[in-house]
Amino acid sequence: MTVRSHGPGTIAIVRSLGGVIITCLASATVFADGTGERVAKGEDLAKQGKWTEAIENFKAADKLEQRAKHACLIALTYIRRELWPQAEVFLTVCHERANAGDPVPDWVPLAEQQLKERLAKARVAPVQITVKPEALASQAAIAVSSFEPDELFAPRTIHLARGTHLITATLPGREPTQVTIEITDAAPREIVLDFDFKQTPIPSAPAPARTAKASKLPLIVMAAGGAILLGGAGYHVLVFKGTRDDLASENDPAKYDELADEFDSQRTTTIALYGVGAAVLATGAVLRYTLFKNPERAPRVGAGVTRGGGMVVMEWSR
After folding, report:
1. CA angle 52-54-57, nearest 5°?
2. 95: phi > 0 → left, psi -120 to 50 → alpha, else beta; which?
3. What is the per-residue pLDDT across 137-193, written as a single tens digit (0 to 9) for each?
4. What separation in angstroms does the CA of 216 have from each of 213, 221, 290, 293?
5. Which run of H or E residues covers position 150?
6. Shared fold status for 1-121 and 123-198
7. Could you write out the DSSP letters of every residue in 176-240?
8. Is the full-model pTM beyond 0.70?
9. Cα–Cα distance between 28 and 36 in angstroms, integer?
10. Domain 1-121 -> CATH class
11. Cis status of the peptide bond prior to 133, with omega within 30 of 0
12. pLDDT one-digit tens code per residue, 199-246
């Protein structure tokens, strides 16, 4: 681990701490079946710089048997990972668990000194977390969104990095309470997680009334009617008129009969196009000045041309 400092005292501490880390990782004490194996594996992983896996093994050992040394090893590994608030929490746990049979390792003061020096230079802010009612504070468990889910701690002051953090307090028999805090500088913060605070919902403003826009359907229908009329006129001039002229000048009875059938069909189509076009155009005009005065009641309109004629369909509801 490297600490950027021009002071010889800091360099000596870091070098000493590095030696302590190697020493403590090389001399594991077997506490119980399975526990010592987890600790040894965690220490081996730490030697390889696999900090996350090392912490997982130290935590697994701690689940089997809670000891001060386990918490100290976790704190030390978090220092190596430069995750300062987690290191603070586990160093505190280390001291809280220590007793004559499970003392604080002799390298802990060096680790604490390094943590103190790094916190002074890191982009973090001290955040004091308080729980109310005060009588219940000792029973509360605090969680931080940037921590692992199993890393709960008692109300205290921790140093959080820049960014947004969700801090949650849980209490047996009570609903969890949460506070979101944003760290933008190094200024100290204080947050209060109050289990008795009942937030009054802010009534939402009524949605603004939607003003119905005038529909363009009548104009579209009228335009469609006009287009059908133009199509009928074009069919009349380009197709039907030619057949009619050929029929008028044809003297061959066989060809005349053939042209007569074609003439009848084209005449029906021409009349249908004119009729449907006029009906659709009229329908659009009626819609514009009647039903579409209330845009919310917009009917559906359809039109079609068949070989035998045409039709206009209009559907609406009240």
Report:
1. 115
2. alpha
3. 999 999 999 999 999 999 999 999 999 999 999 999 889 999 999 999 999 999 999
4. 9, 9, 14, 12
5. none
6. no
7. -EEEEEEE-SS--EEEEEETT--PPPPPPPPPPPPPPPPPSHHHHHHHHHHHHHHHHHHHIIIII
8. no
9. 7
10. mainly alpha
11. yes
12. 545 455 565 555 556 677 777 877 887 888 788 788 788 887 887 777
Choose among 174, 299, 277: nearest CA to 226: 277
Six token digits for residue 313: 């369909």
One-letter amino acid for residue 185 of the chain: D
Find out whether 280 and 315 touch, Cβ atoms under 8 Å.
no
Tokens representing 24 are 């403590």
Element (H, E) at 137: none
On whether the CB atoms of residues 47 and 21 are closer than 8 A, the answer is no
In one letter, which amino acid is 17?
Answer: L
C-alpha–C-alpha distance, residues 204 and 202, integer Å: 6
Q: What 8-state DSSP symbol labels residue 123?
A: S
Per-residue pLDDT, 270: 81
Classified by CATH at the fold level, domain 123-198 comes out as Immunoglobulin-like (2.60.40)
Joined together, the tokens standing for residue 163 give 């960014």
Residue at token pair 């009548």: 218
273 or 26, greater pLDDT: 273
Residue type, 268: T
**CB–CB of 156/129 below 8 Å?**
yes
* Reported confidence tier of residue 92, pLDDT bands at 50, 70, 90: very high
- Give whichever of 46-50, 221-225, 282-286, 291-295 has the largest mean pLDDT: 46-50
The domain ranges of the chain are 1-121, 123-198, 217-315
**d(Cα 53, Cα 43) in Å, to the nearest integer?**
10
